[in-house]
Automatic annotation (TrEMBL):
Residues 21-257 form the NADP-dependent oxidoreductase domain. InterPro entries: AKR, Aldo/ket_reductase_CS, NAD(P)_OxRdtase_dom_sf, NADP_OxRdtase_dom. It comes from Paratractidigestivibacter faecalis. The lineage of its organism: Bacteria, Bacillati, Actinomycetota, Coriobacteriia, Coriobacteriales. Belongs to the aldo/keto reductase family. Pfam families: Aldo_ket_red (PF00248). This is Aldo/keto reductase. Keywords: NADP, Oxidoreductase. It comes from the Bacteria.
Length: 286
């Protein structure tokens, strides 16, 4: 495994295992299997409703907690000074751990300023080793860095061959924020894995299309969060450090960029309309 070093010196494995949309009843055995095949970076969130199962998997695994990089994300409905702090304490209990390696604000909506002040407090108290954001545009990152008391160490955004985030990536690199990719394979629905370009490269190199897409991201210094509930694909997605894409392959994949996301657009006001009922629906559940 290779590691990225965050701005505060914390080391993060470059390939992580995400549990978005892994049902609670399946989550513990899936995470235990991921740890068994070699993953040491786990990513969950309060609104995935599977933190408790992730914590149980870690407890049941022979892998030492200190060897696992564990991330969770604060849900929008838990934003606000004091509320965010309490929500992270609840996450700690659900995850059965006394510290978290990384906590992110899940979206740049509602009182993310009050939420950020709580994350800074948790960081200063040593309950969290690193703090950051998810789905924050460069202007919001700049806002927190300038006025939030501490710059984010990580920003997790949708990034894959069809949504390359070039402007955001360049900004993050310039200010020392680690770029982390969710949906690095397009979540199986964006046409990434059946792209003729990526299929051709994969066939020539004797790799899977997923391995090619992940390798392309790693060569951009982007940490990736791959997800699969199938053991063989888990192993394949982790086996991406024994080859390198040539310059012409990188250029061919760069030409696939659509310039926009395949899921949500944090710059679109309609996205707020999408999240409002979700926040109300989950109010009190976290």
């Amino acid at each position: 495994m290779e590691f990225a070093t965050l701005s505060n010196g914390v080391r993060m494995p470059k390939v992580g295992f995400g549990v978005y949309r892994v049902p609670a009843e399946e989550c513990q055995p899936v995470v235990q299997k991921a740890l068994e095949v070699g993953y040491r970076h786990l990513d969950t969130a309060q609104c995935y409703f599977n933190e408790e199962q992730v914590g149980a998997a870690i407890q049941a695994s022979p892998v030492d907690r200190s060897d696992i990089f564990l991330t969770t994300k604060v849900w929008i409905g838990c934003y606000g000074e004091g509320q965010t702090y309490a929500s992270v304490e609840r996450s700690l209990r659900r995850l059965k751990t006394d510290y978290l390696d990384l906590v992110l604000l899940h979206q740049a909506f509602a009182d993310y300023y009050g939420a950020w002040r709580d994350l800074v407090r948790l960081y200063e108290e040593g309950k969290v080793r690193a703090i950051g954001t998810s789905n924050f545009l460069p202007v919001r990152l700049a806002d927190l860095a300038a006025f939030g008391g501490m710059a984010p160490q990580v920003n997790q955004v949708e990034t894959n061959p069809l949504c390359q985030q070039r402007v955001a990536h360049d900004y993050m690199a310039a200010v020392g924020v680690q770029h982390q990719a969710w949906a690095p394979l397009g979540a199986g629905a964006a046409g990434v894995l059946d792209s003729p370009v990526i299929c051709g490269i994969a066939e020539r190199l004797g790799k899977t299309t997923a391995q090619v897409a992940l390798r392309w991201l790693l060569q951009r210094d982007i940490v990736v969060l791959a997800k699969s509930t199938h053991e063989e694909r888990m192993r394949q997605n982790l086996d991406v450090f024994d080859f390198e894409l040539a310059a012409e392959d990188v250029a061919a994949i760069e030409a696939l960029d659509t310039g926009h996301g395949t899921f949500i657009d944090p710059s679109d006001p309609a996205t707020i309309d999408f999240f409002r009922p979700l926040v109300e629906e989950r109010c009190g559940l976290l």
